[in-house]
Amino acid sequence: MAPEAVPVGFRRAESGLILPEPLSRAREVWTKSEWQLLERTTKLLASRGVLVYLRCARKACQAAPLQRLRRVDGGITLQCEHLDREFQGHL
Questions:
Q1: By Cβ atoms counted within 10 A, which residue in 38, 46, 55, 68 is the most buried?
Q2: Which helix or strand (DSSP H or E) is residue 47 part of?
Q3: Residues contacting 21, CB < 8 A, separation 6+
């Protein structure tokens, strides 16, 4: 395998090791109140005709918007290149 090739389902950690994707990602957990605030703000702006574009402030991640993913447990994760932002207790 070439040094730059990374198999599907794996990613290169900041340490340089190639790890399974779920193990190599940093994770933040946001509270229910943070989730509610974000949802209320987004809905208010949408009702006023303003689109919201969320992206990571880290330079390496700025090219793409955050992806909103539904987890197996029904929760929601906002994902960028280096970090998973998981919302707890929003159900």
A1: 38
A2: helix 32-47
A3: 9, 10, 11
